[in-house]
Design a protein that fits this description.
The protein is of the alpha/beta class. The chain starts with a helix and ends with a helix.
Length: 352
Amino acid sequence: MKIITDVVRVWKSLTKSEQRELNSEAMSSPDVGWRMRCKIIRNLVRGEGVATIARILGCSRSQVYRVAKRFVADGVDGLVDRREDNGPCKTDDVYVSFILTAVGESPPQYGFDRPTWTQELLVIVAAQHLGVRTSTTTMSRLLATLKVRHGRPKPRVECPWPAAAKTRRLNQINRLRENLPKGEALFYLDEVDIHLNPKIGADWMLPGQQKSVLTPGQNQKRYLAGALNVRTCRLTWVESDHKNSVLFISLVDHLLKSHRGIRKLHLVLDNFKIHSSRAVEAAKLRWQTRVEFHFLPPYCPDHNRIERFWKDLHDNVTRNHTCSEMDELMMRVNNYLNCRNLASQHTYAAGC
């Protein structure tokens, strides 16, 4: 191959000292790029093919050819990194700040109809606003350096309450949690759906392959109503085939039986209709003063601490599951929740 012959010719024109130094740099230079270029030359001198060198060193064949041509043209000086001669860096602090701001917003705010960002669109927007045009490769490296990830947004609904009213209610609940009287307990309550047809979620896969999840086809559902104790981080739950007020009332009854030594239970819950039905109002007469409800503002799931518990349940059990029978799936759900409670018990006992 002519490129190998040319590299060997230039190599032989070097002094023995220069050859030894280049071999040494190929093994121990702290500069990764310089070390790579030295290794490419050393392997070409040994007679290795371009494709073989690219495979061994994990680089592209075009890089091998580019380094070889520069070595043939300028000798050892041709291996020096010349990027500092490209002019000032385009992705300076102003550019980085603009990209971070843009990624936190959406293209329509910059006059584009497309609802999501692409690397090409970020390049165009930055060029329009800053007058600096980069390549998509540079943008890709910049986003990776800034640890900007490509993920799924979280849907949310705006709380209809005035901001002051929402803040006031949340502050009341936070103060109660921080100054909970002795002999009283506070729980965050919510319900979760368990589907036999699994929720599909992201997973690691081999290149060029896509995993498949076998679903039973005919879906079945079970429902859990849970209460998370803010002091012990232990979950109390009940199970039902129906998501209604009966499920909610059975949870409160279970809490009262399992916490007989507690004078009063404070329950933080959302505004789902099963929490304020006529059946619940009738049950309050039976519960009397042992139970007090604290309703969160509408559409504020992030302020219900049990939501994270349910997310962990889906991540560890129900997402992409392979159970063909609902009983098997519920056994795994209950096992996970019991193990989680056991871990919380040890943590609480240790004073964490």
